[in-house]
Design a protein that fits this description.
The protein is an alpha/beta fold. It has two domains: 7-321, ABC transporter type 1, transmembrane domain (ABC transporter transmembrane region fold, Up-down Bundle), CATH 1.20.1560; 341-571, P-loop containing nucleotide triphosphate hydrolases (Rossmann fold), CATH 3.40.50. The chain is built from 24 helices and ten strands. Strands 6-7-8-3-9-10 form a six-stranded mixed β-sheet, with helices on both faces. Strands 2-1-4-5 form a four-stranded antiparallel β-sheet, covered by helices on one side. Helix 3 runs antiparallel to helix 4 (66-111). The relative contact order is 0.10. Residues 557-604 are annotated as: Disordered. It is found in: Cell membrane. This is ABC transporter ATP-binding protein. The chain crosses the membrane at residues 142-163, 169-186, 257-281, 287-308.
Length: 604
Amino acid sequence: MVPIRGPAARATRSPGFRLLVRLVRQSGPGTIAVLGCTLASAAASLATPAVVGRVLDALLHHGAVGRPLGLCAALMTAEVVLDAVAARLTGGVAAHATAWVRHRAMARLLGAPPGDAARFTPGSVATRLTANAAEAGSGPPAAAALAAALPLPVGAVIALAVIDPWTAAAFAAGLPLLVLVLRAFARTSSHSVARYQHIQSQVASRLGEALSGARTIAAAGLFAPERDRVLAPLPALAEQGALMWRAHGKAVAHSSVLMPLLTTWVLAVGGLRLAAGVISVGDLLAASRYAALAAGLGAVAGPLGTLVRARAAAGRLTGLIALPELGYGRRALPPDGAGTVDLRGVCVVRDGRTVLRDVDLHVPGGATVAVVGRSGAGKSALAAVMGRLADPTEGHVLLDGVDLREVDRASLRQAVAFAFARPFLFGDTLTAALSPCTSAGGAALARVREAARAASAEPFVRLLPRGYDTPPGAASLSGGELQRLGLARAFAQAQRLLILDDATSSLDTVTEQRVQHALTHTVRARTRVVVAHRLATAAGADLVVWLENGTVRGVGPHHSLERHPGYRAVFTPPDSGVRPERDHAPGPGRTPESGAAPTSGPGR
């Protein structure tokens, strides 16, 4: 193999290289098949010059040529067929590897705690899962092609030595030049490919941001500045792309010059040996072909370049694949549990900042609990660890006496339901979107409609053209309507613990009061935890948890906490009237700027 040192050698220890090795192993049978076909084709290529040389010698000496001529035709046919099969297998292996790495990265992204997944912008994720995944998937067949390309020139050099050692020595004199060409190519292109993919991700991220804020850009007349901001990295992208192709072109050009020079040099030495009577005319013909095959060491620049790009792309994908994943146990929750939640010594650290510190909390089963505090106090972090959307950095969270880390996935997600400020609706119809954890049928539909009535969503759902059969993406919904559907989904799923994280922020006061009444009188959940911003919500709860700077400042009924000035300061003055719902927040899957809510839902 070509010796690679320095940065290229260190690259073999990089996460991208390790992921590439995993891809090769994952695509094992297909990669082995590509390698086998390519090696067999190389063997046919190595045998052909010797057979052609024998045919020529037989013709010159008026010998029988039928058998060697038939063998020559068979070898050439086999080479063509094997190359075609290898090309067909290469596409299949690359597609399989791409699908595997995409599935792996997407599974880790969806299974990671929300705070960890949020480190990646939508544009960066899209680039990694599309272009980078496709380039990484091309790695296994490129590795097989490279592994098969190396024995061909080595075998050709050995064949030259068998014909005449002097012809092999003549070729070996120029071999270091080819090695230097490949070494320079690997070193130069590796850095350029990594930079190119990074800048490409920057452009995609900026474009995603601009699309999310399209209405604001149009209203403020910021089209030209935003266009310039999105396209600002393009010169650097073009520069890195030019460097990549320049390195590839230089390697191909150098090898293209060296190949005829080496072939001519070997032929000159072979001609002298022919004149001396050491080799035959057929041997000289075979030597010329073997010299061309041996000089084809430069042909490894193609698969080597593909492998370099695949390693760089795999390095970017490792960021997603390395995301921490919530592991689940095998225990089931007690069937008669009341929904009691206990937090013991819980600490949460995100990006080096302590969000929750030494939280000890007991939530009685069957209670309605309001979590209040100023912005940044840790309310959403507390809600996340209570329902195990994320694990605490330290401490334990128990539901009905069972540590949430020990509960199996199915039991936990059936027992705990979430509703968020900006929900995302999945499924082909609203019925499917509102019943993600229930089976289809009349019972499921009845439960969905009951939950929709409790969330005050049924009146506007009935006005839709197809009612509950309307596809979520086809429904033009306001922000409040979308929140009510998110509440309906949580109500339909709720069994033991229901957590509302700012899930009524877009509702008008009257609708919110109806939802609060349903929450305490209609919803089946035994325990309800509400992240609250309004005084009325806290006043209607059985228990209030007051957070301040990541610690529990107080726990108790609202009437006992409101004596403290700091507690009263948490709430803004009550609304003087009915707050209108947000306009133009249709269908799920978009950010508020673009007219709808971005992805944010339990589904993990």
